[in-house]
Amino acid sequence: MYFKKMTGQKCYLSPIDENDAEKYTEWLNDLEITVNLGPLYGSILNVDKEKDLLKELSKNHNYSIIDLETNELIGNCGFLEIDNLNQTAEIGIFIGNKNFWNKGYGTEALVLLMDYGFKAINLHNITLRVFPFNERGMKCYEKIGFKLIGKRRESLKRGNKVYDIIYMDILNKEFYEKNIDIYQQ
Ligand SMILES: CC(C)(COP(=O)(O)OP(=O)(O)OC[C@H]1O[C@@H](n2cnc3c(N)ncnc32)[C@H](O)[C@@H]1OP(=O)(O)O)[C@@H](O)C(=O)NCCC(=O)NCCS
């Protein structure tokens, strides 16, 4: 069951429903998806494990991304590592239903979550990590206004290659300068 917590033009963000564990398990066993997702690429995931994981994720600011028109689950996004003292957090996202890639859903879901993060959780700085071969991800983050802050050198192994991990961040005021036309304060 889904609830409209943050609503955009294409999708809305809902609290996680742990009954979706099977769908998530399907997506998180797809290497084309998990190649972009840190340790999930090299880990074993089944429905029981995913149910426990969803239970844990739903205790924090993690949300399901739901297509507004069809009410279909298409992915997940959330904040990791919220630091209330320093008002910082890291953001993460994946769209598991590949039919929804490149249609603006990822950008809108992140804008919704970030607007909520800046206003309701009182964040000041949001950071993320992205892998250098994930051009779609980087384009999406640049559109929102994320800026490159640095690279952790040779910290990612995929196949026989070693890559730098890219770090990006954005401040509250930069986000609203770029996205003010979409989400008025
Ligand atoms: C990364 C992800 C969240 C982006 O969401 P999305 O809905 O597909 O992205 P959007 O449609 O909002 O934006 C993608 C942009 O990248 C562009 N793009 C796609 N492939 C590209 C490529 N190879 N090179 C450059 N740009 C590319 C698209 O054209 C689009 O830009 P535009 O709106 O100016 O045309 C989603 O694709 C996803 O979940 N992928 C798998 C998991 C993942 O990578 N998660 C993020 C880990 S950091």
Q: What would you note in describing this structure?
A:
- The chain contains 6 helices and 8 strands.
- 26% of the residues are buried.
- The protein has an 8-stranded mixed sheet with strand order 1-2-3-4-5-6-8-7.
- The chain has helices at 21-28, 31-34, 47-57, 105-119, 135-144, 172-179; strands at residues 6-7, 11-15, 62-67, 73-83, 88-95, 125-130, 147-158, 161-171.
- The protein is globular, with a radius of gyration of 16 Å.
- The chain has 185 residues and is an alpha+beta fold.
- It has one domain: 3-Layer(aba) Sandwich (Aminopeptidase), CATH 3.40.630.
- The structure holds coenzyme A.
- Coenzyme A binds at residues 33, 36-37, 75, 93-95, 101-107, 130, 134-137, 139-140.
Structural key phrases:
8 strands, alpha+beta, single chain, globular, binds coenzyme A, Aminopeptidase, 185 residues
Task: Write a compact overview of the structure shown.
The protein has helices at residues 21-28, 31-34, 47-57, 105-119, 135-144, 172-179, and strands at 6-7, 11-15, 62-67, 73-83, 88-95, 125-130, 147-158, 161-171. It has 185 residues and is an alpha+beta fold. The protein has a single domain, classed as Aminopeptidase.
